Amino acid sequence: MRIKTPLPELGHTTKWLNSRPLSTKDLLNNKPVLVHFWSISCDLCERAIRQINQLRDDYGDAITILSVHMPRSEKDKDTGQIKKKARDHGITQPIAVDNDEEMTKAFRNRYVPAYYLFDASGRLRHYHSGSGGVNMLEKRIKRLLVN
Question: What pTM was computed for the model?
């Protein structure tokens, strides 16, 4: 995705955890939206989840966070294991379980962890994947909240 690209339609998702099924319109509430792709088989994701949870706690209702579980193998499609990992790591924000990779395709995402930060009007303002991506997010979030 390119900077200023609109937030894609969420489309079909295998299952939703911690939420009813959400649409793109549901996410856009005149506040920034962070979409975080992760996988239960990703070691980097486990470390990043703690930081995403900290952002969630620090910014509360000022931002919307959506976690998207992207399977990297058939074993990653076990909803029970996804629920367990989410519970173990304190993920309370909505989780889209993307076993059919519909959201992954809509975002043209190929990596986990990956972070897509959209402004209040739904335009992509920051993207990063891999290690270190979470560290840049807070500065970008603060910038969006000031504007």
Answer: 0.95
